[in-house]
Automatic annotation (TrEMBL), chains A, C:
Modified residues (N6-(pyridoxal phosphate)lysine): K87
GO cellular component, one term: cytoplasm
Keyword annotations of the record: Amino-acid biosynthesis, Aromatic amino acid biosynthesis, Lyase, Pyridoxal phosphate, Tryptophan biosynthesis
Keyword Amino-acid biosynthesis annotated: yes
Enzyme superclass (EC): lyase
Gene coding for it: trpB
Domain Tryptophan synthase beta chain-like PALP: 53-364
Amino-acid biosynthesis among keywords: yes
E.C. number(s) listed in UniProt: 4.2.1.20
Organism of origin: Haloferax marisrubri
Complex and partners: Tetramer of two alpha and two beta chains.
Name of the molecule in the record: Tryptophan synthase beta chain
UniProtKB/TrEMBL annotation, chains B, D:
Catalytic reaction equation(s): (1S,2R)-1-C-(indol-3-yl)glycerol 3-phosphate + L-serine = D-glyceraldehyde 3-phosphate + L-tryptophan + H2O
Lyase among keywords: yes
Main EC class the enzyme belongs to: lyase
Family annotation (SUPFAM superfamilies): Ribulose-phoshate binding barrel
Protein name: Tryptophan synthase alpha chain
Family: Belongs to the TrpA family.
Classification via NCBIfam families: trpA
Listed HAMAP family: Trp_synth_alpha
A GO-annotated cellular component: cytosol
UniProt entry keywords in alphabetical sequence: Amino-acid biosynthesis, Aromatic amino acid biosynthesis, Lyase, Tryptophan biosynthesis
Molecular-function GO term, any one: tryptophan synthase activity
Length: 422, 292, 422, 292
């Protein structure tokens, strides 16, 4: 990263002028508190991650997957973090930073509700008023997360414009920020948005790879040959990769949501996937230049994935840059493969993953599973693979069961008795 | 006529409408009505799917226009089809400028890597110049990121208008004022676009920061009546920018199924009220040392 | 504990003869593997608790509660354990033991579904077939947990006899065990049942107090003045108390579910509470002599609590004994107080507790809260209190919202928009 | 007549019914019908709310009886009201025995501590003896926990029957056989009570373990027909215990609303078939060295 928040040509600060002073103030706070640990900010943050968040999370050997894939498969257990996903690393960091900055109000957007719940938890913990913007359609799809946010004392503001999903919620939150910028901090939920967000969120999330690296050395006396993480906006991804970027011997795989197909319907403005690294093009969205799902004119397309946390038309600029430079390999896994992987991990390891995280396991299966064609890709994974379990699947139970039922995933348990009553 | 010239004869009235809202034909009539109502410059919105700086009124206009099939290509046709003589400013988001004309159909078809690299803003500016657009307002493009667009504008002789927010001060302000041309868009209040029932008190102090800069100052965000317009010009503005109050008329006409002529008349009426307000405001203001 | 599994007069092995050989075999395995660490069983168990389960769980200072109660309040975060409750400590221990014993099949009962999900997770992790018995009424009340068990590959057997709740499910599981005793292990979910279950489950759970004791010394350089834990069967309770029992300076509070009232309706055979330590009498249930909710004739009463995990007519014999001897103080908190505490912790600390665990916080409020009468009880808590957060409340969202709505808990967020659609 | 005596004249038929199933009056008739059908001993169930050793058939009988108001006190009245002359064995769970008569109403009312300490099994045994019960079967009371009940039985001259499971061997078997009196209940298969359509093959080997013990051996669990009875006695059993097959008749009659006499006749018929089967089995078996 250069000082102006550029990763190659990506990144930058494409926001309305009204927000620029806030972003400069934030950047200043980021440099002082996060980078220079002023007032012991980072120590405070790390202590809270430990005591409130439950860090470190284990690096667990997956015995049955290791056997299946004929290599050492280790799981980085972010699903065990308070709230059930890696999202808390970032939310806690940003809310704490806002507190150090003297802000008095927190706003955030949420799609699946994971970032919203993490932010609501962090705000309750740190005694900050909080409002969360969430598309009306998402509110209806993700009720338990709405309940959790409200129980933690946050307001949930339904966004009714447009299609009522994440994209609209982000825009709406930016509008609130532009109106209340003086006392309000906007907690962005991934490594996206204008500088310093992509760097700052990465730094808060990089505790994942920092721990994993140390744990790998302790457990196997060496670094992994590969790290695999799903990529929506890319925050768990950058978190899992950051400390390995300089370890040339460790391959890094970012697994995107292939949705139902990689083909796009330009007429309808719909991409039935969220594979912006694989199929996207360069553009500017939500404050940064990055890879996007957009039509020929530059209008943003509606993305799709069975996992709502990956369902976003953009991706973090740093991750896009690392893919362009070849340091990170972007791959993708479709809805069916992800659902199958969801069931496989649940049955074989006793861990019900978030549908987002299931994509990472789908990749393992597709290159190293018993039905995988012999390929160089499997060699690329090497002997010793770390997979980031970015979150737990409790939030996905109903949709996983419904989607499974519609698709007839063969390893799924019989849930006929429930699919009616959902 | 250049943009700056439009501010030469007294206060300028700068209305905004989204091109193609709610449909191509009606929209042509509405924009033309603005000129009849006294517009000195017209800001014409090219709708983007993620209008992060707009309030609900303009967001909904954007949705109507997109659903009506508006695209950058259609937008340029629209400008060509327009029968107005005042200068036009294209208001849009940077991604549409950035992506325009980056690849031909043929290039695209033969491109299997999935990577398409933009040629930057130049093709868009070139085309805009060709159809007669005089300048741009790009709400998500801060001065820091504006060099490529600035260069293209210079090349084709277009102006680049910047927005100055109430929070913009000091060094930032200098940086913006170095880049700006045509006029500066003075945001009257924090937040997003949208008609307001009262006018911001901060206008006077907002303008004070800018006295040292020699470029017309047009104040926008929330102006909805002749009375507002009058007070703002009286506080020292060189022009007023009005969007949501006009878009509200389009929206209402659309909802009620009113015919385009009726709606155009209403727009003309409000435009005239606003223009008259601005003119009335000018007569109240203290003699201006720099701009006589 | 004496060698025959008695705690004073409590405990023992009141089971059908067909089960006695299995219980003797289990006792033998318990002594060898658990007590004597044969084949490194305990090392294996502890390593899995760490890597799979996410131990150690933090001992977190609750900043805002500490302020409210004017003393140091620390939380033992069992809610962060894999699966969301302390239940995994026991389930993993027993399933692993069954594996060491050469058993080929696991059965378990479950009420709220927490023990069932923990067992299903442990079985998937250890590749053991598993069947869970669950009352039909509970199946309908606890759907997400039913989904989780099935996703982890367990069979869920509905129990339709009687009222279709936990009591019936336990009886049904005992019947299965009596039929398949040779290759099957019955994983009992709390410190109840015939010897060696109460001792063995306590030993698996005592990792809670073992960690808490060490963490307390590290963080405050001393032992806590009091440990507070909710008590249903009493497994999180005994787990939180075990290592403190010999520390005379640490007071131990077992918080039972007071339900709607402590009065019982003998005619109907219903106790509108689950306070067997407070109001129960000595008797024999599910294999052990202990304190029970029973009518004058010795028929077991239907218990009640807003929290289904506390909704049981019996209690562990060791805990009953510790209460009789005065080492543990039994107290209780009613449904309304528990719900209020549920909301308070969610809002003030960003932790949505299980309704079971909320009872422990209800006790704190009732003796040390701003509206508490000045009392010796508050002094009993001392300066430094550890509260065991036995589980997270994700499983309770819907019922907590419904029950809150019915009762009009004043600190609750407005959920009107949702209470219709539940 | 003592229990052991009931086994003296050839194989004993020991039927079981839950007292009060489905109601007090019918149940009296049903139990009496068993005697007419040839019962040598009758096991009378006192229902407990958590019958962990029973299969669904008897569980449901227990529920019906409890709903009909059966209690230990009513049970003793029931025994007094019964007009049968064969010995009666009370089959129940230990908690009911343990809790009986632990406190008078007056004690209870004045007890504010909430603690009630049981007096143990003695009051129950005393009362049972008083109404003429000859012995007990307590499925959840293993020999290890049986001393207090054993003592009370000895004091009042009652027998204590134990169940021996297929898994009971070695030392455990000795310990049980030391405690047992009246007869030993030989469980024919693992699992819970319930009528089966085939009879367990393990009966012969089950009984072999027990040859050295000088007490009548009654085999139960799953016997449902005269044919089963015959084969089991032929394998060496001194008696057969039949519960669920009889309870099924009660349940069916209850469901169909049949009158009590009709149901009683059916019970008598099945009882006779079972008794005849047992007698037929006895004639096929090899002369027994110890029991001639
Ligand atoms: C569990 C989980 N994993 C991954 C993601 C994707 O986000 P990111 O790519 O920023 O990690 C989400 C987003 O909600 C999530 O909840
Ligand atoms: C979170 C939680 N806490 C407590 C309990 C009560 O059980 P015990 O008293 O055995 O800890 C349960 C039972 O389901 C539970 O889920």
């Amino acid at each position: 990263m250069s000082a102006d928040g550029k990763f190659g040509d990506y990144g930058g600060q494409y926001v309305p002028e009204a927000l620029m002073p806030a972003i400069e103030e934030l950047n200043d706070a980021y440099e002082r508190y996060v980078l220079d640990n002023e007032d012991g900010f980072m120590d405070d943050f790390r202590a809270r991650l430990r005591d409130f968040g439950g860090r470190p999370t284990p690096l667990q050997r997956a015995d049955r997957l290791s056997e299946r894939y004929d290599r050492e498969v280790y799981l980085k257990r972010e699903d065990l973090l308070h709230g059930g996903a890696h999202k808390l690393n970032n939310a806690l960091g940003q809310v704490l930073l806002a507190k150090y900055m003297g802000k008095e109000r927190i706003i955030a957007e949420t799609g699946a509700g994971q970032h919203g719940t993490a932010t609501a938890m962090a705000c309750a913990h740190l005694d900050m008023p909080c409002e969360i913007y969430m598309g009306e359609r998402d509110i209806n799809r993700q009720r338990p997360n709405v309940f959790r946010m409200k129980l933690n004392g946050s307001e949930v503001n339904p966004v009714t414009v447009g299609r009522g999903t994440l994209k609209e919620a982000i825009s709406e939150t930016m509008r609130d920020w532009a109106t209340n910028v003086e006392d309000t901090h906007y907690v962005i939920g991934s490594v996206v948005g204008p500088h310093p967000f992509p760097s700052m969120v990465r730094d808060f999330q990089s505790v994942i790879s920092e721990e994993a690296r140390t744990q790998a050395r302790e457990k196997l006396g060496r670094l992994p040959d590969a790290v695999v993480a799903c990529a929506g906006g890319g925050s768990n991804t950058m978190g899992a990769f950051a400390e390995f970027v300089d370890d040339e011997e460790t391959a890094l795989y970012a697994v995107e949501a292939g949705g139902s197909t990689l083909e796009v319907d330009e007429e309808a403005g719909v991409a039935p996937n969220s594979a912006s690294l694989t199929t996207g093009t360069e553009g500017i969205l939500h404050g940064a230049r990055t890879r996007l799902l957009q039509d020929r004119d530059g209008q943003i397309m509606e993305s799709h994935s069975v996992s709502s946390g990956l369902d976003y038309a953009g991706v973090g600029p740093e991750l896009a840059h690392l893919v362009d430079t070849g340091r990170v390999t972007a791959v993708n896994v479709d809805d069916d493969e992800a659902l199958t992987a969801f069931h496989r991990l649940s049955q074989m390891e006793g861990i019900i993953p978030a549908l987002e995280s299931a994509h990472a396991f789908g990749y393992l299966e597709s290159v190293a599973g018993p039905d995988a064609p012999d390929s160089e890709e499997a060699d690329g994974l090497g002997e010793y693979v770390v997979v980031n379990v970015s979150g737990r699947g409790d939030k996905d139970l109903e949709s996983a069961i419904e989607e499974t039922y519609e698709r007839d995933i063969d390893i799924a348990p019989n849930m006929d008795e429930f699919t009616g009553g959902l | 006529m250049s943009l700056e010239d439009a501010f030469a004869d007294g206060p300028a009235f700068v209305p905004y409408l989204a091109a193609g809202d709610p449909d191509y034909e009606s929209s042509l009539k509405y924009v033309e009505a603005l000129e009849r109502g006294g517009a000195d410059v017209i800001e014409l919105g090219l709708p983007f799917s993620e209008p992060i700086a707009e309030g609900p009124t303009i967001q909904n206009a954007v949705v109507r226009s997109l659903e009506g099939g508006m695209t950058p290509t259609r937008f340029f046709e629209f400008v060509e089809d327009l029968d107005v003589s005042v200068p036009l400013v294209c208001m849009t988001y940077y991604n549409l400028i950035y992506r325009y004309g980056d690849e031909s159909e043929a290039q695209r078809a033969s491109n299997t890597s999935g990577e398409t690299v933009s040629n930057g803003p130049r093709p868009f500016v070139e085309k805009a110049a060709e159809v007669g657009i005089e300048g741009f307002v790009v709400p998500d493009l801060p001065a820091e990121e504006a060099d490529p667009l600035r260069e293209a504008c210079d090349e084709f002789g277009l102006d680049l208008v910047f927005i100055v927010a109430p929070t913009t001060r000091g060094e930032r302000l200098d940086r913006i004022m170095e880049q700006v041309s045509g006029y500066v868009y003075v945001q009257a209040r924090l937040g997003t676009t949208g008609a307001q029932s009262s006018v911001s008190d901060q206008t006077g102090s907002s303008l004070e920061r800018l006295t040292d800069y020699d470029v017309p100052k047009a104040v926008g965000f929330g102006i909805s009546s002749g009375d507002h317009a009058e007070r703002i010009v009286a506080s020292g503005a060189d022009g007023i920018i009005v969007g949501s109050a006009l878009v509200d008329i389009v929206a209402e006409g659309h909802e009620n199924g009113d015919d385009a002529e009726t709606v155009a008349d209403r727009l003309e009426t409000l435009a005239r009220e606003l223009k008259d307000g601005a003119v009335a405001g000018a007569s109240q203001r203290p003699p201006h040392p720099e701009r006589t």
